[in-house]
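User: Here's a chain of 482 residues. Predict its fold as tokens.
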Amino acid sequence: MTRTYDRLVTQTAPGATPGPAAGPGGGLPAPVPGAAPARPAATAVVVSGQGRTGELLGRAGTWYRALPPRRRDVVQDAALALSLAVLNILSLLPYQSRMHPSWLALLLVAGQCLPLAFRRVAPVPVLIACGALRDTYDALQFGYAPLPLAPVIAFATVADRSGRLLRWTTVVCAAAGITWSQTLPGHTQPYDAIVQYFLFGAAWVVGTLNRRRRVALAAAAARAERAEASLDAAAARAAAAERMRIARELHDVVAHHVSMMAVHAEAVGALLPARPEAAASSADLIGSTARTTMTELRRLLGVLRFTDNEAPQSALLTPVPSLSRLDELVDMVREAGLDVTCEVSGPQAALSPSIDLTAYRILQEALTNALRHAPGAVTTVRVTYEASFVTVEVENGAPASSLPQVPARLGPAGPGYGLAGIAERVASCGGSLTLGPTADGGFTVTTRLPLVLSPRADRAIRAGSFRYMLAVTTPRSAGDGR
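Assistant: Prediction complete.
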């Protein structure tokens, strides 16, 4: 047999010189010096049955994975139905000589299993079909009946996938059917009824537990979907709020310098040609303000691009806008031509970083508005420290009629964002804001802020606000802002 297999697997190609057979050691013949190299032997490819079986199994797996979930359930249940049918037939084969006709008995025990292929599609009809064939088998008194596994599985499926009324109706009918079957001849032993009731009771428990498990999983999936949707909505709200903070900070960092440039440019036009020296000074201020603006824009973009760990150390050492720099802010606005007086009253107390930054930005925005919309007016800045609050007030009178007003082409194209930014900052700190025109045609902005925020609120503003990050890491001149 071994030689025959060797001849099937390896044969000498036509025209090749056969070498000597391998010895006991299995060595190959040595090549002859000067002789032409031997042609390789042709090997016959033998396709094994195992390889073909693996290929068929792979195709079956690919077909099964391509099915939708509902059809996958049918395929699984069909495999279960066929397995039970084969098991029932094998259990009756030793007794077929005692059953007449045996083919009908085999057909009934196999037929009661086949409806299980659709047990998850139509649970109740499948239970009726399985139970009817089983009762028919008992009614014909074939004897040697196998365990009623098919009706038990169908009964568990009804308990798993049907409504309350249908489930309890099925329980009553199943109990009546089992009781009736025990009255038929051949069921004289007490353990027969005990086994039947135990099997169906266990099936009911299994189906009920599986139904509750599916309900719990569905509820958990629904909660997860709602939680994910709420997280997406919260992320969208947070992104919108962060966009507002970024826009407000850009407004504070850039718009003040742009307003200064516009004021000085108008002054150049008003001073020429009568006062060329003053016009030249205003032109120089325009250039220095433009360079300062470009520097701050580059720093701002750097903060947006790099993380805190990647940011240059020099950016972390720049001064932070604070009420301690109020004199610098007032001096810069005075250089632009606004008559400003500053009054600070009350014992100065340490402020939370968020409160200090908010108060500075409010003063900056209010002074910028006075410079743009009330040139030449007398403006008063009042900072009052109280026991638990700090009050910041900026009041300007009506614009001086003798000074040139800002041309319309340099004014804002639409409603500005300065006052809205002030209101947002005050609300974030839990303060109060009062603003509006005065009786003499001027305008006043009054803000009352708490001296110290709660640690939780201060951490939220400092850690969660893009505004505060920029305030710490971006260098600013004394008069930057709006």
